[in-house]
Task: structure prediction
Amino acid sequence: MEVELIQDVNVIQVEGELTITNAEVFKDDFLKIRGTRYLFDLSKLTLLDSTGLGAIVFCQRHVKENNARLAICGLNGKPKLVFDITRAHQIFDILETRTEGLEFLTH
Amino acid sequence: MSDSMTKKKIRVLMIDDERFNHVIVGKILTRDAIEFSCTCDPLEGLQMISADSYDVLLLDIVMPQMIGTELLKHIRVKAPTLPVIFLSSVVDDLDNTLLDLISSDVCAFYVNKNKMGSTLLARVRMAVKYNEQESQNLRVAKEIREEAELAGHIQRLILPEYIEYTPHAEISAYFKPVGFVSGDFYSHLTLADGRMIFFIGDVSGHGMQAALYMTAVLSLFNSRFFMENGTHPHQILQSMNHYFSEINSTGSYFTCIVGVFDFNKNTFTFQNAGHTSPVWAQNCGTPQCEITSLGLEKGGIPIGWDSSYVYLEENSECIHFNDNDDFLFYTDGLLGTAENCNDFSFDEFHALSTAYLTQSERVMFPFRFISAIQKMGYPIDQDDVTLVRVAKSESHPWVLHRAVGASLDAVSALCNEVCVWVEGKTSDFMLSAKVQLLLLEFLQNEVVYSDKNLTNKHQSYVIVTLTPSLTSATVQVVDQSRWANFEACYNRVRAEIKTGDMGAAMLSHGRGIRMILELSSTMRRSTDSGVNLTEFVIQNTPPPSP
Result:
């Protein structure tokens, strides 16, 4: 998990696969990041399964409970299929690009 | 420390409506340091047996509330091995009820109540000793049972998996011992030139002796010990006979078939050493399917009968088969003994096999076949049963066969491979992604939620078939998992994930099942003889729009 602080937003680049094999580690790593704004950049995510999506939902719930904000950008390919199937867009703020994501979280 | 101090005091309970008898018996027993309790009420006696432990029960026959023989039935539910001594006089047992009961219950004894004295004491001590011996026997029996279970497990490890794909063949087998271990065996080896040697047999007798010989023979076959003496069926039989005659000191023998499949030339050359005939099914998967028993005239004698016997090449038979032909091999446990008219007969075998082999999914044949004859009411638990189907693996450009172990990493690698294969064939990213995701979710569930006892051996078999139009894919998964709430999971109506509802629904495995259902246009699942076949059809239609 690669984290970059841009305009007070934790931009988290999620790369490769996020599945049942690494979802727990993902959640643990996320909980270590301090802040009030988070942007998941999924443009380099190649595979997401339901457990991986569960981990992202976990992060979203954690953020809400702490009155923080989370958005997602760069959703494409197979991970997008998973979001579409589960209608996960209903609970996430999904932006096209990182720039749009940053703008959404900083305004 | 003296012997008497190390020994536990014997505890005796007496149920007798005559208080007078309590006094007499109490005196006799306590004088000999036996702990004595008593009651006049049979029901109270039952409660005392439930609440406390006694070494011996003294039971009167004629009591107003309930007669002793009747009371014993209730006692046996709670204390199946508690020694019971009936106190009776011959006049109490005019119709021999007591005699019958004592002769059928190994833990029931009798003392004439008119001649108690030292007889009673001796009988109590004998009953206690007998019971200790029985408990010891039970312990030993339990240990033997556990060891037999372990032996059965080890046996299963040296047999092939229930379904196997070699580069040229698919082999599926139903294998079931009558107890924990089996004298049946089968195996196959692929040679460097692509030929496959198939071996099936049945060691005479049952139980541990047959099982140990089976294990030795199969291990030896799997070690390819015969290679230097030649790989023709008669040569392998000769090697087997030589080896088995050396190790066999008990007069055991085994029947078997050794056959060599050449899938390039489509030939099957075999020799039968006293085993049930193999069955050749032609034109499988079509209504013209026809079944023939092979090699009824030729063959050699069972292995181990005669160490100097020569297995001749002329007693082998060679069959030229077509790509869609199947071969069935079985042990005699399937058909039972010919004398018993209640046994499953070869004519029925013939009719049922033909009916099943006209269908597709022939890989499931052994499991469906056994399941069918069980439904027909035939007992197939009287003998070890093995039924194996061997067929040429259809190498079709639109069909992919794969086996996968019960690990998440293996599942992940397989799903990636399937995705690349589907995309390579169809150039359809969406279809390949859907197939990958569906398989990933389903096989992960198989690994995570199925019976953990199976995981060391459990494998799933995946068959992906693309339609000629390349617009859809059929994914079949064969597995042995016992997924307790499979139906409940897959039939449950799941609520849509709504804003604010980010709790249990999204974090449970229900989400994966939802994905599976969304990704497949149809899904069906059948289970036969513990083997599941789950089939999904995936269309390349776009996913539901947000």
About this structure: Residues 50-65 of chain A form the longest helix (16 residues). The mean pLDDT of chain A is 93. The CA atoms of residues 64 and 70 of chain A lie 8 Å apart. The two ends of chain A are 25 Å apart (CA to CA).
